[in-house]
Amino acid sequence: MVKKSLLWVYRATLATLWLIIIVIAGSVLALRYLVLPHIDDYKETIAQHATAAAGQKITIGEIGAGWDGLNPHLSLLNVQLYDKQNRPALTLDHVETSLSWLSIPLMEPRLSALTIHQPQLTVRREANGTIYVAGISINETGKVDFPNWLLRQSEINVLDATVLWLDDLRHAPPLMLNKLDLQVQSPAWKSFIGHHLIGMHATPSAGSSQPIDLRASIYGRDLDHLDNWHGTLYAKLEGTDISAWSNWIPYPFDLREGYGAARFWLNFAKGQVQSVTSDVILSNVVTRLSKTSAEARLNNLSGRLKWTLFSDGHEVNAERIKLSMPDGLDMHNGKIRLRNRTANGKESVEGNVELDEIRLESLNTLATYLPIEAQALKKLTEIAPVGKLEQLQLSWEGDQPLPQEYSLRCRFAGLGMQTYQGIPG
After folding, report:
1. Alpha-carbon span 75 to 320, nearest angstrom
2. Dihedral through CA 139, CA 145, CA 147, CA 150, nearest 10?
3. Contact 132, 124 (CB under 8 A)
4. Nearest one of 369, 364, 333 to 351, comparing CA atoms
5. Cα-flanking dihedrals φ and ψ of residue 220, to 5°?
6. Rounded to the nearest 5°, which phi and psi values hold at 325?
7. Are 320 and 279 in contact (CB under 8 A)?
8. What is the tens place of the pLDDT at every residue in 98-149?
């Protein structure tokens, strides 16, 4: 009985395999001899299906067909997308695509590759946060079927594009990205978990004299639920005006001027930025470490800066800091940490500074750039300490505006101070 059952399973499996082979072979033969040689006759039908998928009218001028290895290859010329007012919103002069055989088991059109040559795109973010690419919404609730379908394709390439970014949400000036190359990879085995790898290289019209390099590793399946997306973005900027990018990118700290090179790692989840890490080499920097501290002007600044969001506040870290200031402050291998918390309507702060060496004559200058209450700064000015500190570790903690706990550890030499409240100098 068992032997007969196994024999039946073997025959059924063999028949199924032969059926699959016959279907695939028949599909290949039909494509090769019946469909592809007359593909131009089907362009209206293809355009109608594309219109239904995008939710906007699409027309195709010409279609050519061939083979890309084992995959059918299509070359489309003069593809036009229309806006809601039936006006041409985007013209794609040359589009190439290769169909994937995964379309059969997945029961939807799948592309092994999609390449768009030299498009000119306008990308706009409306005041309500909705983003439109050539009039097509990519994140408007209920209208993301076409963008979601694009993200399920194995590979998308945009070559030598010109992109105009208009941001009504931030009221930012227009930004043009020239000679833009974009690649989005979502292999079938990764698309099931919503993993997308993105790479972009472009020359901006402002903010940088050199091309920018942007990469991303993102997880997400549905643009209708962006709060469920998470991932990491990486950007490399050289010959750039870092402060100029604040027009289009919300910095978690106040950076007003700064020129040089930087690398950024940005982590996001639950619809908001979770952390930003940056390695910088900058000159002529104007910044403010907190809303209560004074404006700092730096001749040079290098090191690693990190901002992290927490449920009760945020933290700013600076490591391997080297800086010099017009007033003579010169720091090497510095480390600064600032932590803000808000609980039960009260705001507290804690922080620490670690320095290999500092002259106390420069301490007044450094203190004005830290979130220290004005009364404490006044006392420090009246004391006017002098001398040299080595292996300095300074920390403070307490409620705003004046922390109640301070700690200082260091080695010192040549210490002195002015007379203060009965204490001899």
Report:
1. 53
2. 160
3. yes
4. 369
5. 175, 150
6. -130, 155
7. no
8. 888 777 777 777 888 899 999 888 888 888 888 888 777 776 666 667 788 8
